[in-house]
Specification:
Helices cover about 50% and strands about 15% of the residues. The protein is of the alpha+beta class. The protein has four domains: about 40 residues, no CATH class; about 120 residues, 2-Layer Sandwich (Tetrahydropterin Synthase, Chain A), CATH 3.30.479; about 90 residues; about 45 residues, no CATH class. Strand 7 and strand 8 form a beta hairpin. The protein is rod-shaped, with a radius of gyration of 59 Å.
Length: about 375
């Protein structure tokens, strides 16, 4: 037969508190009788209470890692921030410590989701986030990532944990709003081509300003554009447009290079012609000045001896004029004898045979003296 527990003394209790007190007394009596049977001593239950209290007190010891910041809460309210290293707080549920990492780089993806890191990696597009309106009322498909971490400044960990209800959700909403605002201030050509770096910088600065205004305790490490493309429905047409723009830029560069090659040559030729003209001008001016000086000198000589000077000028002039023409001088006797038969046109040609020796082909002394 199983042993029956003795009944309650003085009858069954009606009050629950009284029932608990009687149960405790009954438990102490059973422990005392068991200890007396083994050694005759009496067991003190307060030792159990003391051990439990010691163990409970030891649960307040904590260690904050070097990459963490400790935030101590007392009944859910922040009381202090703990630096890396060992520390102590009142045991739970009086106090507890939260230890967010301040060096971990967290990443959020916008416009796509990584569903398998691979290799090869697989992604899933999120068009609701990716489609954005540009300043010239066009639509682009823009995917980007945001890398962030908790600030290392004092009280930044407390701000990250308690200043906003959902830090991750707040970051996602703020980042998407910042990117849409920046894209809305730019034309589609800038977004698709050379304006990407500027858009990244502007969006990151705007996102950081908004988070600082919220005092979220978040530092934006990087904001990077991944893919910027036109919507899938018009991607082929946009590719043709981009190809035409690239051809335009290529032709402009080729024309600029040709102009840079031809223009210096043309300028050099123009400078050369100008210099030649200046030299020709200087020569002509000097020749004219020399001729005028010579004429003045001749005039002075002419005024001294007019007849002699006149004859000398005549002879010099005739010598210059006659020296430039082909001529044969004959006296009257030779002319009467040979002119009807002499082929004068052949005599004057280069390489023609010499005239007969009995034909005096030379200037007459009388002619030279005229």
């Amino acid at each position: 037969m199983p042993q029956q527990l003795p009944g309650w003394p003085n009858g069954d209790p009606k009050d629950p508190i009284e029932a608990l007190e009687r149960a405790w007394e009954h438990f102490r009596a059973r422990l005392g009788s068991g200890a007396g049977g083994r050694g005759g001593g009496r067991f003190n239950p307060w030792w159990i209470v003391a051990v439990v209290l010691v163990v409970w007190a030891l649960t307040g010891i904590y260690i904050v890692a070097p990459d963490e910041r400790g935030v101590v809460l007392r009944f859910g309210r922040v009381v202090r921030e703990a630096e890396p290293g060992p520390g102590y707080h009142l045991p739970w549920p009086i106090e507890e410590v939260l230890k967010p990492s301040v060096t971990q780089i967290r990443k959020e993806e916008f416009g796509f989701r990584t569903i398998d890191v691979g290799p090869p990696a697989r992604y899933q597009n999120e068009d609701v986030e990716a489609l954005m309106l540009t300043g010239d009322e066009n639509i682009v498909k823009l995917q980007f990532i945001v890398q962030y971490r908790v600030k290392t400044e004092p009280n930044a960990a407390m701000a990250f944990l308690f200043n906003v209800r959902d830090p991750r959700g707040t970051l996602r909403a703020t980042a998407e709003a910042a990117m849409r605002e920046v894209v809305g201030r730019n034309d589609i050509d800038d977004v698709l081509t050379e304006g990407k770096d500027r858009i990244q910088t502007d969006a990151q600065e705007l996102l950081q300003r908004v988070l600082d205004r919220y005092d979220a305790g978040i530092e934006i490490v990087a904001l990077q554009l991944q893919d910027v493309d036109p919507p899938d429905q018009v991607s082929d047409a946009f590719k043709d447009v981009i190809g035409a723009q690239q051809d335009k830029e290529r032709l402009i560069n080729e024309a600029t290079g040709y102009a840079n090659d031809v223009t210096p040559k043309a300028r050099g030729q123009a400078a050369q012609m100008i210099n030649e003209a200046e030299a020709y001008k200087a020569v002509k001016v000097q020749d004219a000045a020399g001729a005028a000086g010579r004429f003045n000198a001749l005039y002075e000589e002419y005024s001294k001896a007019k007849e002699v000077t006149r004859e000398r000028l005549y002879l010099e002039t005739m010598e210059e004029v006659i020296g430039r023409v082909n001529k044969i001088l004959l006296d009257d006797l030779a002319a009467k004898q040979v002119v009807p038969y002499l082929p004068l046109d052949q005599v004057l040609r280069p390489g023609a045979p010499e005239p007969p020796g009995n034909l005096p082909i030379e200037p007459r002394p009388e002619a030279r003296g005229r």
